[in-house]
Amino acid sequence: MAEHEDTSPERPNAPVNDRGAANIGAAPGNDAGIPNRGDLAVNMMTVGKLKSGTSTAAIADIHCTPTFARDTAVRWAELKAVYLARLAEEHTFMSIHVDPAYSHLEPGIERNSAIDRVPASIWAEDERLSDLRYAAEDELMAYPSPDADAFAFKFLVAYGDGRDANGWNEMLEQEARRFASGWASRSDAVAPSDPLTAHLERLNRIAIDAMDDYGGEWVAAAQSLGLIVYAGLDRNGADYISIGARCDGTERETSGWIKSLSDHKDGVEGGRAQIIDYIRQSPAHPFVDERVPAPRKTTKAVRGFLAAGFRLFLDTKGNVQTGGAMPDQWWHGTPEQQCEIGTYARAFDDLRQQHNIEKQLRRIVRMVGTLHEGSGCIVLERKEN
Questions:
Q1: Minimum mean pLDDT among 73-82, 170-179, 355-364: which range?
Q2: Closest CA to 57 of 227, 255, 225, 194
Q3: How far apart are CA 87 and CA 43, in angstroms?
Q4: Which pLDDT does position 324 carry in this prediction?
Q5: CB–CB of 66/84 below 8 Å?
Q6: What is residue 114's three-state secondary structure?
């Protein structure tokens, strides 16, 4: 993969991706369900270095790595197998414990009454199995398709059997562009001969008139050029962006595009942060979290955070947020109490920065939080005795 990212002062000879070509691969301690940057390579990709002062027409040290293609296909097969297993578990449970209770009845009062008679424990188990299936589905759909067969499978997950999961439309369209050689949209037909020029001109206008849209527009520009973009957090909690291209004989041209887009984001104040925020919030784009989970520390930190009077809530998009007013003891307590509150808050924030704990936080809030009917959020706070 020809990649470009900020170089580090500590590593003057670092590859254009700040992670380093040699580091693209499985991260020790990574959750099995979390793709790493080696997994995210699509087909045969190019890894290259842009030497200091080198023009884009003289890219050096570029080599193809067929291992990426094999590893990507293997990882895809693993995610697909997990998804199919979860789907089978859910369907089997429904067919045995739920469907017989009412599926033979016509819609109406009798059917509604039959549904109401299904024990709450059955619905709880059904919800648990559904959550597992959705989690497996999210990982599968977010993973780049290694070939057209994988893309077709994704399409059927979203739209097969009358389903209409249109939240994946953007990702499916971008992947379809990769596999549909020769296809051109109406906008492509009127674009200038140099596709990069039009994208850079549009990004210039966005940076002036609509900066909040910069991240999405930058990613869209990269993908329309056939480039692959993802972002993440390394094991130390530092964020990064990676942009690369397949090894398909156009490395010289695509390397120039990569450098131009990377230079553009670096030249726009707040551009890099906008791109990372966009990728992190979009289910259609991979965001890799390489930080190591810390289950016991997380449980302890959450207990202290809640005991100090703070709250956690799970919003309707599945993101864990912190909220609530500062505890009364912060304003009216003794210096010792104020210090204790600050210690709990810092411990929670530090742990969240240093470790991959978001999945555990979501699970904790779902399990013991309370649904807020007005907002649809699940709120977790200290229970008063």
A1: 170-179
A2: 255
A3: 28
A4: 67
A5: no
A6: helix
Q: What is the DSSP letter of 38?
A: T
205, burial (CB in 10 Å: exposed 0-12, middle 13-18, buried 19+) = exposed
Question: Percent helix, strand and coil across the chain, each rounded to 5?
Answer: 55, 10, 35
C-alpha distances (whole Å) from 363 to each of 113, 125, 140 are: 32, 15, 20
pLDDT tens track for 119-172: 889 888 988 998 999 999 999 998 888 888 999 999 999 898 888 877 888 888
CB environment 213-227: b (16+ within 10 A), e (fewer): ebbbbbbbbbbbbbb
- What is the pTM for the complete model shown? 0.42
CA distances (Å), 28 to each of 31, 228, 276, 292, 361, in order? Answer: 9, 24, 23, 9, 22
The backbone torsions φ and ψ at residue 117, rounded to the nearest 5 degrees and listed phi first, read -80, -10
Q: Return the bridge partners of 370, or none.
A: 379
Helices (H) and strands (E) in the chain, counts: 15, 9
Nearest to 224 by CA among 180, 259, 267: 180
Our CA angle for 360, 323, 343, nearest 5°, is: 75
Can you tell me which residue has the tokens 């553009």? Answer: 264
The overall average pLDDT reported for the chain is 75
Q: Which residue has the higher pLDDT, 339 or 50?
A: 339
| More reliable by pLDDT, 370 or 383 | 370
243 bridge partner residues: 229
In terms of DSSP bridges, do strands 45-49 and 311-314 run parallel, antiparallel, or are they unpaired?
unpaired
Q: How many CB atoms lie within 10 A of CB 27?
A: 19
State pLDDT tens for residues 175-209.
Answer: 888 787 666 555 444 444 577 888 888 899 988 88
Rounded Cα distance between 138 and 131, Å, is: 10
Q: Which amino acid makes up residue 37?
A: R
- Range 60-83 average pLDDT: 65
Give the other-Cβ count within 10 Å of 66's Cβ: 11
* Token pair belonging to 248: 């398909």
